[in-house]
Amino acid sequence: MAMDTGYEALIALNAAYARCIDEDQLEAWPDFFLEDCLYKITTAENYRQGMQAGLVYADSRGMLQDRVTALREANIYERQRYRHILSVPTILAQEARGTVSETPFLVARIVRRGETTLFVTGKYIDVVAPDVSGQARFVERVVVCDSSSIDTLLAIPL
Is 137 among the domain residues? Predict the structure, then answer.
């Protein structure tokens, strides 16, 4: 199956997004989103039921920047890092606001002592559109976690 530019752009956006988080370049993380955006982490059950509240909820790039500032300067949490393993996205629809896609993921967490555990599995439900320069950006990223149980403070973005 030949990939079109939209599909390739989704793959590249997802790969760069995961690398940014995995390499602890969190100050660049908000740049993956348009100024007016939605970033939410929720559970599969809440997503199925249409519940709007999430474990994390931000509705602007400014809120994402504030979250990074809080992580770096205010929050206290066990030092850790992530390693994302992503599947390929599936395009679900083309809408006026952008391309709607779903991408399954696994995130391993590596803690200060070097221990690695499977932290979370789930899927990204995204709406992606070009910014003013033509670069693909998230209009919306809803992180749907398979489990309702996260075993530690959810500090770093997923």
Answer: yes
120: domain CATH number? Answer: 3.10.450.50
The model's pLDDT over 46-56, given as tens digits with 9 standing for 90+, comes to: 999 988 877 89
* Total domains present in the chain: 1
Q: Report yes or no on 154 lying in a domain.
A: no
CA 68 to chain centre: 14
Work out the mean pLDDT of the chain and round it to a whole number: 90
pLDDT in tens, 82-123: 999 999 999 999 999 999 999 999 999 998 888 999 999 999
Q: Cα separations (Å) of 27 from 62, 72, 150? A: 12, 9, 24
CA distance linking residue 104 with residue 128, whole number of Å: 16
Coil, strand or helix: which one is 113?
Answer: coil
